[in-house]
TrEMBL record:
Residues 236-261 have a biased composition (Basic and acidic residues). This is Large ribosomal subunit protein uL3. Keywords: Methylation, Ribonucleoprotein, Ribosomal protein. It comes from the Bacteria. Residues 222-235 have a biased composition (Low complexity). Belongs to the universal ribosomal protein uL3 family. GO terms for molecular function: structural constituent of ribosome. Signal peptide: none annotated. One of its GO terms (biological process) is translation. It comes from Paracoccus denitrificans. Residues 222-267 are annotated as: Disordered.
Length: 267
């Protein structure tokens, strides 16, 4: 069992899928969601992580909470919640959880503040308290996530008002996917993955450039070899032609001049 997240409900919109269908989604925002404390079985009797989201002015936070946030090394938070986890899914204090904690197609449960039932039943003795009930909607499907902006888009409606805080967890009535990120998708892991991807891209670019340079070198060598071979062939042909010309001159006698032939006739 891994931790859930605290998200702010931004409202609803629609997304268009690749096949052209439009899906109504609720947009949830992870606002600087960080781990502020751990609960361990040896010290506290149970295992959990305490998360804080949003930003709060220090003067509006009580002194004990300011000390609690300072001990964790994080800024004062607007909303704090605890999530029970297994011992192998504890997250380090100070880590920031990002939207990649969930992925498209996964099912989640969302809990938020709701007005229920939203009306006064006939015959109810007045005055009564209305609303202020926390409701959990189960098996909501994640349509899309955006880790850069910290957005999780969930199919359908989520309990709570616009701008309110909701809690999102892995669906308890659905089998957990095998490709879940455990213990959590954190900012440090995202940066590490980006660094590895950049290094791999740089290495691939360097290999491609080296292969291009090697191909250019081989082409230049082949061109130079072909040019040298052509020049050698031309020189050999020229030498052969000169040799043939010399042999022809040696074999053919010189022709007699007309004056010599005329003198012979007079004699």
């Amino acid at each position: 069992m891994r931790t859930g997240v605290i998200a702010k409900k931004l409202g609803m919109t629609r997304l268009f899928l690749e096949d052209g269908r439009q899906v109504p989604v609720t947009v949830l925002h992870l606002d600087n969601l960080q781990v502020i404390d751990q609960r361990t079985a040896d010290r506290d009797g149970y295992v959990a992580v305490q998360l804080g989201a949003g930003e709060a002015k220090a003067k509006r936070v009580s002194a004990p909470l300011r000390g609690h946030f300072a001990k964790a090394g994080v800024a004062p938070k607007r909303k704090v919640a605890e999530f029970r986890v297994s011992e192998d899914n504890l997250v380090a204090v100070g880590e920031e959880i990002v939207a990649d904690h969930y992925f498209a197609g996964q099912f989640v449960d969302s809990t938020g503040q709701c007005q229920d039932p939203g009306k006064v039943f006939k015959g109810k003795k007045m005055a009564g308290h209305l609303g202020a009930v926390r409701v959990t909607t189960q098996n909501l499907q994640v349509v899309k996530t955006d880790s850069d902006r910290g957005l999780i888009m969930v199919k359908g409606s989520v309990p709570g008002s616009k701008g309110g805080w909701v809690v999102v967890k892995d669906a308890v009535k659905k089998a957990l996917p095998e490709n879940l990120i455990t213990p959590a998708a954190t900012r440090s892991k995202l940066k590490e993955a980006q660094r590895i991807a950049e290094e791999a891209a740089a290495a691939a670019a360097a290999e491609e450039e080296a292969a291009r340079a090697e191909a250019a070198r081989l082409a230049a060598e082949q061109e130079a070899a072909a040019l040298a071979e052509a020049e050698a062939s031309i020189a050999a042909d020229k030498e052969a032609a000169d040799a043939n010309a010399d042999k022809t001159e040696e074999l053919d006698p010189a022709p007699e001049s007309k004056d010599d032939s005329a003198e012979g006739e007079d004699k």
